[in-house]
Amino acid sequence: MNKQQKIVFITSLLLIVLAFVSWQISGGEVFTKTQVLVEAQDEIEKQLGLSHKEWQDKFVLGLDYTLAFSGAVIATGALLFFLFRSKNTEQV
What we know:
Layout: H1 3-25, E1 33-40, H2 43-48, E2 52-60, H3 63-83
Antiparallel strand pairs: 1-2
């Protein structure tokens, strides 16, 4: 493995790890969500002690997008790894 291949490998691995860390930080959901259900109260409901639920726009990263991104990184990394090969490889 030459120097360019090592850089491609380490960069790809780092991007995949960062994708999974960000997925876990955002909640570890299986499917990506664009809206979440939250409890809300208006002035009258506060006085009566009631509440209602409404949808709020919020992006929550899911495992589906994380796996798609990781697959694209693996495919790109494999292509670059193949393109950067040389006939005089280092023997470690």
